[in-house]
Design goal:
This protein folds into two domains: about 110 residues, Rossmann fold (3-Layer(aba) Sandwich), CATH 3.40.50; about 170 residues, 3-Layer(aba) Sandwich (Rossmann fold). It is about 35% helix and about 15% strand. The strands form two sheets. Strands 8-7-6-9-10-11-12 form a seven-stranded parallel β-sheet, sandwiched between helices. The radius of gyration is 22 Å and the shape is elongated. The two termini are about 20 Å apart. The model has no long low-confidence stretch (mean pLDDT about 95). The chain binds (2R)-2,3-dihydroxypropanoic acid. The site of (2R)-2,3-dihydroxypropanoic acid (DGY) has 7 residues, from loops. (2R)-2,3-dihydroxypropanoic acid binds next to loops. Keywords: NAD, Oxidoreductase. Belongs to the D-isomer specific 2-hydroxyacid dehydrogenase family.
Length: about 325
């Protein structure tokens, strides 16, 4: 009897761009698009996976050993640069190829990082709120909403990958000095990026702004804890557009209340989407955005396409046994 040849099946958890989804259909895949409005737990993914060989997920889905050990699953494509929601060790053990979307979100994320740096330094959200509440009564030399200078300040970048470097380029253009910390000094930085490698403690002690751009791993979890915050200068600001758990949020809340650092601008949160109540309440020198580093229409569309292209390539390279 001739075996029935089945089209490779792919499960898509949450909505992606239609044009990217259509690409999978054109490539002959059987696409089950759950378009779930909420992230899926690993049990929910397993229940829906059936015999799918590929999974398209997002950073809020949990892709653990339970998912990765499902027979037949060969490729996981995440529509994100970060992969901390995927158990990469389990993927390796079970031979599941993982693809992600680096590069395409570098500039958008660096832009938002800089927007946050400027917003918190120049107190833009506070100024906006002041006007809307009717509290602006004209220019005063001794204004209450004094900000911090950016030109001439030192920016400490923790994690000097693509996004860290893109933030470094912006900082240099704004007249800042740049320090960076990564596991090892990088020998491949472009010459025009005048950034000096420093141990984390030196970077924290010497920077006026500290910006986090490291992936979330066991080593970087709570890299900014009470001890690290105590090393920062009282006039310094902390910016995070990478992953929330890099910061011990309770320690940050305490440091802000005690005035151990001047302020924080955060796009990501330790227990996302929940935000520490002190950070929520505090509007003075605290700026919050909703995990929006890559949130430009073009970047997000490119992410969907890059994930799908990677998935198609990986499936083609690993035909079903
Ligand atoms: C990513 O892709 O990891 C980003 O956090 C999404 O903005």
């Amino acid at each position: 009897m001739t075996p029935v040849s089945r089209r490779p099946a792919v499960l898509v958890t949450q909505p992606i761009h239609r044009s990217a989804s259509a690409k999978m259909v054109s490539a002959g895949l059987e696409v089950t698009d759950l378009a779930s409005p909420v992230p899926l737990t690993s049990d929910e993914i397993v229940q829906r996976l059936g015999e799918a060989q590929a999974l398209v997920c997002q950073l809020t889905d949990r892709v653990d050993e339970h998912v990765l050990s499902q027979p037949g699953l060969r490729v996981v494509a995440t529509v994100s640069a970060g992969m901390d929601h995927i158990d990469l060790e389990a993927a390796r053990v079970h031979g599941v190829h993982v693809v992600n979307t680096p590069d395409v979100l570098t500039e958008a994320t660096a832009d938002l990082t800089f927007a946050l740096l400027m917003a918190v330094a120049r107190r833009i959200t506070e100024s906006d709120a002041l006007i809307r509440s009717g509290g602006f009564h004209g220019w005063k030399l001794l204004d209450e909403l004094m900000g911090a200078d950016i030109a001439g300040a030192t920016l400490g970048i923790v994690g000097m990958g693509r996004i860290g470097q893109a933030v470094g380029r912006r900082a240099a253009a704004f007249g800042m000095s740049v320090l960076y910390h990564s596991r090892r000094p990088r020998t491949d930085l472009p010459a025009q990026l005048e950034a000096r490698h420093a141990p984390l403690s030196e970077l924290l002690k010497s920077s006026d702004f500290v910006s986090l751009h490291a992936p979330l791993t066991e080593d970087t979890h709570h890299i900014i804890d009470a001890r690290a915050l105590a090393m920062m200068q009282p006039h310094a600001y902390l910016i995070n557009t990478s992953r929330g758990p890099l910061i011990d949020e309770a320690a940050l809340a305490e440091a802000l209340v005690a005035g151990r650092i001047a302020g924080a601008a955060l796009d990501v949160f330790e227990h996302e989407p929940r935000v520490h109540p002190v950070l929520l309440e505090r509007t003075e020198r605290v700026v919050l955005t909703a995990h929006a580093g890559s949130a430009t229409a073009r970047t997000r569309e490119r992410m969907s396409h890059l994930a799908v292209d990677g998935l198609l390539r990986a499936l083609a390279a690993q035909p079903a046994a």
